[in-house]
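Hi Y.,

Following your request, here is the sequence exactly as I used it, all 103 residues.
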Amino acid sequence: LTQGASFCGKGQWGMEVHIHEWLLASSRLVQDPEEADFFLVPAYSICMFEGGFFNLQKLDSMYKEMVRSLPYFGRNHGRDHIFTFGSGMSANVFRSWREEIPE
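Below is the corresponding structure, written out as tokens. Let me know if you'd prefer a different format.
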């Protein structure tokens, strides 16, 4: 995926890239994670699926691994982490999210 965000910024799934870029340009962006009110978890998963890079099973596995490695995820049980899913598939790219993100 040599084109990175430019590839994923096109089409229906492009909203994931645009939200990420919009937040990066915010005057409210903090560099110290202790000061953060929330964390965006940019994954561009719909793009990765629709582009044929990963199947749904692999994406789910990658999400599980990623969530378990996020250093501030446990602080509030993930309630301050925002995931975006830019298509009608919604969170189906992370099918086991209920197991990884407690209520």
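The chain is about 40% helix and 5% strand.

Thanks again,
Q.
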